[in-house]
Every structure is written in C-alpha cells, then in structure tokens.
Amino acid sequence: MSTQTDSALAKARARTGRMNGAEAIIRSLEAEGVDICWGIPGGAILPLYDAFMACDHTVQHVLVRHEQGAGHMAQGYARATGKVGVCIATSGPGATNLVTPIADAFLDSTPLVAITGQVPTHLIGTDAFQEADITGIVMPIVKHSFLVQTVEDIPKAMKAAFHIALSGRPGPVLVDVPKDLQLTEFDFAWPDEIDLPGYDTDWISGVDRDAIDAAADLIARARKPVLYVGGGVINAEATDELILLAEALQAPVTTTLLAKGAFPDSHPLSVQMPGMHGSKYANWTMHRSDLLITIGARFDDRVTGKLDAFAPSAKIIHFDIDPAEISKNRHADVSLIGHLNETLPALRDAVLANRNDERIRHQIDWLNDVQGWRREHPFRYRRGGDTLKPEYVMEAFDKALRGKDAIWVTGVGQHQMWAAQYLTIDRPRRWITSGGLGTMGFGVPAAIGAQQACPDAYVVNIDGDGCFQMTMQELATARCYDVPAIHAVINNGWLGMVRQWQELFHGERYSETDLFGTIPDYVMLAESYGCLALRAETEAEADAVIAEAIAARRPTVIDFRVDREEKVYPMVPAGSASHEMLDETWENEWVEEGV
Amino acid sequence: MGATNHHTLSALVENRPGVLSRVAGLFTRRGFNIDSLAVGPTERADRSVITIRVDCTRHSVEQVVKQLYKLVDVIDVYEVAPDAAIERELLLIKVQVDAERRSEVMKLAELFDARVADVGQTTLLLECVEHPDRLASFEELLTPYGILEAIRTGRVAMLRASAPEGESTSRLRVLG
Ligand SMILES: Cc1ncc(C[n+]2csc(CCOP(=O)(O)OP(=O)(O)O)c2C)c(N)n1
Predict the structure, then answer these.
(1) What is the ipTM of this complex?
(2) In which domain, by residue range, is B56 found?
(3) Domain ends where: B80, B101, B135?
(4) In this structure, are residues B23 and B51 in contact, taking their beta carbons and an 8 Å threshold?
(5) Burial degree of B101 (CB within 10 A; 0-12, 13-18, 19+)
(6) What is the DSSP string of A128-171?
(7) HSE of A482, CA atoms in CB hemisphere, 13 A
(8) Which residues from A are below 8 Å from B176, CB to CB?
(9) Final residue in a domain of this structure, among B64, B80, B96
(10) Which positions of A are catalytic?
(11) How many domains is chain B partitioned into structurally?
(12) pLDDT digit string (tens) for A195-235?
C-alpha cells in the first residue's frame, strides 16, 4: 500500500537522471505523492533546502517555528487524510526537537516520515558540531529508521520508509541522511521494488474462517455483548463495515478517545467513550457485559482502570492488525488478525447466518438496560451562575458547527476530556487528539496541519492555556500561510487536569499548577501575530465570539475565561475499577451502579 | 502471570548496522533481563543469527516474540525447544594447578572433551564446547582446584538435523 499515484510515479520516472542526493529526496517525495511537508533548515540539511529552491518540483514546504510544530503538523495532516505526514529537520537539536511528535505518532499509530540531516559521514561518531545519534535516540519509538550509508540508498530508503509508515499498523519512520550524501551526484532511479525480507504484511490479508466461526459462536451464546472500538477502525477506514456489523448485532458500541468518530456519536447504539473520563453508561456497559467484541483497541489502562476488575464476566473477541496486541493486557478467547474492512464484513455475514431469536430477545433486555443508564446518567454539568462553564463552550461550538464539515483538534488535559464528552463527532478523521502520549502542545500545530490538509473544513483547536503556551509560536506559521483554524483557549488559569488531581488526591496542595490566566494576555498576543483575537467571559459572549470566529475564516484565537475550579466528571481514579466512578457534582459519593 | 522459566530464542536478522541494538533494546524496554546473548554470521553474508536466553513467563515470551517480529530487520524468530535442538556454548577457563594435580585436571578435561589451550607454570587454560548444562558441571568439578578466570560465549542453538520440518518454529502467524 503506497500513496504514490500513477501520474506522480510517471513524473518521478521521467526525472530519472543525474542529480545529487538532496534532489533525490525531493524526487522520492514526489514519487510518493507528497504534496506538502513541514520543517526548518539548518547546516546538515541545507543541501535539501537548496534543492527545494533550485529545482522545479511539486512539494510545498511549510516553514514552521519549532520542529515539534513540524512533527505535529505532519501528524494533523496524516490523521485528517490517512496519508503519510512528512516533517524535516536538521541534525542535532533539530532532530531531537522531533522526538516528541515521533513518540506521539508511535503511540497513536500515525503514519509519519521524519527526514533529518546528519553530519557528514566521515564525522559520524566524533561528537561533531550538531551531531546527535538520532536513530539511536528514537529506536524505541519508531516503527523503523534508516541511517543512509550511500547516496544510492536514498531512493530505496525513502520508498521503504513510506511503505513501512503506512502499511500494517501505521507508525513513524525516520530517515537520517548525512550531509555529504545529499551533495553527492548519482544516477537516480525510483526503485520498482522494496527489499525488506523481514517486513511482510501480505499475510494480514484474507480472513481466517475458523476464527470467524469461533467468534460467531461466542456471539450466539452471549447475552450482553458490546463492541469495544479503538483507533484501528479509523486507520483501517472500516467505519461503514463497523456500522453494518453493529446494526446486525444490535449491540451497544463504545469508542475510545482515539476512536471518536469511528462510529457516529449520534447513532442510537453509541454509548460514547469508556474509561477514566468516559460516560458512566459506557463503563457500566463494559463492566456488565458478557462479551467484549474488541475491534482495533488495545486495553489501555486509561480505558480499563484496574485490569483485574475490568469487565470481569466478559469473554473477549479481539480483532486487530497487530498480533502483538492480542492477549497483551487481557487474554483473548478468540482473536483474528486482519484488515478490519475484510474481517468485519465476514463476521457480520456469520452473525446474520446465525440469527437466533432467543438471543435477540435477551439483547432487547440488554439494550434497554444500557439505554436506561444512558437516560439517567448523561454527561452533565451545573450551569454557571456568573461564570462561564467550559462545558458550555463545547456545547456552543458543537451547536454552531453542526452540519458543517468540522475537524476538532485538542490539547491534553481537562479541556480535552470536556471536548471528548460534549462534542458530537459523526465521521472518522474529524477528531484529532493526542491519546497515547498525551502531549501538551499537540493542539495548535496539529490543527494547522489538519487545516492545510482540508482547506475547506472548519478546524477548531480546543486547547488549554497550559498546552497553548507550549506551541503557540506556530501562530506565526498559521498567519504566514493564512491557515484559518480557530484556536479556542479554554483559559482556567491552571494546569487544570493536574490541579484536579491535587484537589482530589493530594489534599488540595496546588503545587506549581497556577498559571494566573492573565499572563500572557491572549488577545494582545494573538493580535501581535496578526490573528483575529477574541475573548469571552459569559455565555452570551461565548455565543457571539464563536459565531464571529466561524464567519471570519482567518487565523483566530479566542480567550475563553472559564470557571477556574470546574472539574471533569465522571472520573475513575487511577488504579480503581472502571465502574467505580467519582461524580462529585451530582452524587458527592462513589457511584457503583450497574455492578 | 505464571511462573518464570528459561527460554532460548533464535532470531534470524538482516546483517545491518544497528540490528543488535534494536533487538537488545527491545528486551530492555519491555523489562526483560537477558541471561545470555550470542550473535554471529550465518551461511549467508547478509544474515546473522542472534540467540537470546531469557528468564520469564510463558506469556512474556510470547509477547516478546511478537514484538521481535515487528522489528523490520528481524526475518524470523523461533523459540528453541530444548529437546528439538542442539545447544552449545564455548567455555574458556583458567585453573590453578600445581605439578602433582595437573594430571587429575587433565583427566577431568578429557572426560568433558575439553582441550588444553595453554599451559603455564601453575596454571592451565582449558577450552570446552558443550551443552551449557555440561559446562556448568565441568566448572563445578574444577572449582576445588581454584578457578582463576572463566568466560562463556553465550549459547547458540540449531534445530536437530533429524527434527521434522517446521518443528518448534513457533511462527507468529500461527500464534496470531
Ligand atoms: C508535555 C507535557 N507535560 C506535562 C504533561 C502533564 N499534564 C497533563 S494535563 C496537564 C495540564 C494541562 O493544562 P492546560 O493546558 O491548562 O489544560 P486544562 O487541564 O487546564 O484544561 C499537564 C501539566 C503533559 N501531558 N504533557
């Protein structure tokens, strides 16, 4: 599976000829159909930047302000499109600035190719100026990496990098190119084949009938099945197949933080997000279930809570593309490795062939239970008095963009959880958040990358004031390239999520979490970057600035001065069983229903 | 999850720079302690074999095999079932011996098919290629004489010539 289009390939072939390694990198990007990439130049990557200007090509380069921004922009692009995101940095500090996005892409299975300059071959290993062993540094957080040894290896490494990044379970690949090789001339030819004897993904194709039969058998005997859906469904582009399966099963569907949008939030079978800040009804559904049909999910601790107490009476079916996820955290009774858009229809056919009226009768009782929890325990908050509640901002944005093509991006913290709880996402690739690594600072650049991928969409970055300050320098990039994404700073003046833990679990000792909230003045700051700058302190002002921002279609920052003490509920304290949810707002006590 | 046991894994890898760090790093990252590790060339110049011995649970060894498969430079991995394979290790051992006990030690060496690699005034350097368990017994028997130095290479393993095709190659696709 490769992104190359026939015409790009033809073009690259036509460019076959004498050139240096730097130009070969650009020809390789063209051959892979890359239309945009992000980066910052420096000594060891200068020849590549020279080639960007010196030769005629079809790859747009976007100059960012910090390499971490380049990496997250490439991720935003990749997650919005399903294509490989490409970022570029120089050796040493440029390369190390890419470490966070690479780790983020690794944990959230995002296809990413990072190209770094390296000191010239003869200086490698001498602690030369700006030398860092970047392939060594990223070893545990990449799918693979190449330290290119000869100029002839550049096209081979590039082709292999794109193939590895996108095929199987997607992930980041780093290509490190010494400066002297960028300058060496050779006869470029785009390779027809990839020589990777240790990397075989062909065997993933096809459907193991025995596993399908075994799964259908477990389903036939289940009384309380639930579909536990993860981000794998989005990478597999298997949303349609999932909806058909869920409807055939008439089983509730819970979507993890990464899977939001993989199944429509507004579908009657959706019970939304499970886990630490998930819905009570999703957690109770999982807890009471007798069969978890796990699809492209990985039993992350933020979902399961205390693993021993998670879904204690459930058998497990696990469909995935990565064998290493099977029985990693929870034993799978039936597992099937494959492409979800092949295996899900096969399971649906088997389920339909096995129709069983008794099962359906039980299932109706089960769905009634689930719907009852859902009716009685929705996400809710106390409306605000004088203060603007962050949850209100989510609802207002959701309403304002309903029916429009909106892409929601977030930072990490309370605001991320409120966004996950209150936004309605009905399509895949329209919710982009840092889940596995939980990277503060992801929001601003990821939103820019997603907007550049989808220029007509309404991109909204729901950000925290702490997160925003980690990558806000990319407002310059947004302004220089006129990227109209809206950056909604949910300004509570705290590192809010940490403050919440301090309030609940550390005796209200607010150690080093106060951000004051008026420093910087986000309106003045955004104005200095030439962005539209707005502020809201009441619900009426929030409605008005949201409407103004949506209409503006230019880079926009909104400072939402929200209730400083609002907490995210429900909450499963770390290490607790996932059905034991704290919800101080309503019960002021432990809620243990559904047990 | 269950009791720990010794497991020997054999990984056929591409002979590329960095492959050993990738394999070793994977064990470290997943919290495995490597008991012994041997790496060397094969009949093909572009392939090496890494033999790794770890002490862990069955569940962990299955996980680590799956993780090894995910490394792009790793072509094949199997767990070596002791009865289906020949396992060998080289021991170099320097023993303190005075003239009158030398012949005793030489006899012992003969018993274990060890060779005398070098002789000093009061020392004897022996080399022995054997199954690691036999090497352990050999070392134990030499202990009373005074072992000055002992080094082992780490074990290597190969499926028996008589083993049926496919035996003990716990291929991942079978596990999955
Ligand atoms: C790079 C990084 N550093 C630290 C953390 C730990 N952390 C998680 S949430 C959080 C607070 C985020 O504050 P803010 O952006 O203001 O969002 P809020 O929780 O207030 O909505 C911190 C410090 C992190 N996730 N990422």
Answers:
(1) 0.90
(2) 4-80
(3) B80
(4) no
(5) middle
(6) -TT---HHHHTGGG-SEEEE--STTHHHHHHHHHHHHHHSSS--
(7) 4
(8) 323, 326, 335, 337
(9) B80
(10) 67, 129-130, 179, 497
(11) 2
(12) 999 999 999 999 999 999 999 999 999 999 999 999 999 99
